[in-house]
């Protein structure tokens, strides 16, 4: 299947999944391991946002992808990569510690940027996954909203892989609940608008539960090498 055909199917599924609650959905094409040629093909087929897991890989692709997509960091960020990440990414979706927040704020201040971020929550409490536990959310939100060069935009989660994606529904529902709570708090210095959840296997369920960013790799590009 071609990238443009895959995208047409995904777009149809998005429209169907949000028919009860129409909204703008940002489709992030997850481009880890993909060649610039494949990424350009996706951009030609209408992709405007790409997601990378690793800062180094994004740095290599950045100069050759001149179509000016929006760049999202979706993988774990090490503090020694913060400066480069802040210089490159429009949205850092994977913030999961106070230390990281402070480092991002410092790096952003140095280049006069207000860095858009999401807080990653490990709803399923999987030991293998990054992200804070939901009980730590308010503490981190408090820190984020006090930092001058941080713009907190919402929440992100990665659900465990279930062969039946229906099993991920309670996880997405819980993150949506936290997202609604954040929104209703009228936090200062933040603009809570993005709820990033759902990947190839479970994005339809995530959309049904309120996601407005979905992150899809395999579903667009095929199985990764
Ligand atoms: C790889 C990855 C995705 C995309 O996964 P697919 O199953 O290929 O759609 C989404 N989010 C994160 C954080 C990832 O690491």
Q: What does this 3D model show about the protein?
A:
- The chain is an alpha/beta fold.
- Helix content is 38%, strand content 19%.
- The chain is built from 9 helices and 8 strands.
- Helix 3 (55-61) links the parallel strand 2 (49-52) and strand 3 (70-73).
- Helix 4 (82-88) crosses helix 5.
- The longest helix has 16 residues, at 169-184.
- The model has no long low-confidence stretch (mean pLDDT 96).
- The site of pyridoxal-5'-phosphate (PLP) has 14 residues, from strand 8 and helix 9.
Oligomer: single chain
Shape: globular
Number of helices: 9
What fraction of residues sit in β-strands? 15-25%
Instruction: Give the cofactors and ligands.
Output: pyridoxal-5'-phosphate
Largest sheet, spatial ordering of strands: 7-6-5-4-3-2-1-8
Biggest β-sheet description: 8 strands, parallel
Helix content: 25-40%
Q: Please state the structural category.
A: alpha/beta
Kindly report how far apart the N and C termini lie.
Answer: 16 Å
Q: What's the SSE blueprint?
A:
Blueprint: H1 3-17, E1 26-30, H2 36-44, E2 49-52, H3 55-61, E3 70-73, H4 82-88, E4 91-95, H5 98-110, E5 115-120, H6 137-144, E6 150-156, H7 169-184, E7 190-196, H8 203-208, E8 213-216, H9 218-221
Helix pairs in contact: 4-5
The structure holds pyridoxal-5'-phosphate (PLP).
Pyridoxal-5'-phosphate binds at residues 30, 32, 53, 74-75, 158, 199-201, 215-219.
């Amino acid at each position: 299947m071609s990238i443009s055909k895959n995208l047409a199917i995904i777009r149809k599924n998005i429209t169907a999944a949000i028919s009860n609650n129409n909204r703008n959905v940002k489709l992030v094409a997850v481009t880890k391991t993909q060649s610039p040629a494949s990424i350009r093909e996706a951009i030609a087929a209408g992709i405007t946002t790409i997601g990378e897991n690793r800062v180094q890989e994004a740095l290599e692709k950045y100069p050759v992808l001149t179509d000016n997509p929006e760049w999202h960091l979706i993988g774990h960020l090490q503090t020694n990569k913060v400066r480069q990440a802040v210089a490159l990414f429009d949205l850092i979706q994977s913030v999961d510690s106070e230390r990281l927040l402070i480092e991002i704020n410092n790096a952003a201040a140095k280049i006069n940027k207000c860095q858009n971020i999401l807080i990653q929550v490990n709803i399923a409490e999987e030991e293998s996954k990054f992200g804070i536990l939901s009980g730590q959310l308010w503490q981190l939100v408090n820190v984020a909203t006090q930092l001058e060069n941080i713009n907190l935009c919402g929440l992100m989660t990665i659900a465990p892989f279930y062969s039946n994606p229906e099993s991920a529904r309670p996880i997405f529902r819980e993150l949506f609940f936290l997202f609604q709570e954040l929104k209703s708090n009228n936090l200062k210095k933040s603009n809570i608008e993005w709820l990033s959840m759902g990947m190839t296997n479970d994005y339809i369920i995530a959309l049904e539960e309120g996601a407005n960013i979905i992150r899809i790799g395999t579903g667009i590009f095929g199985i990764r090498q």
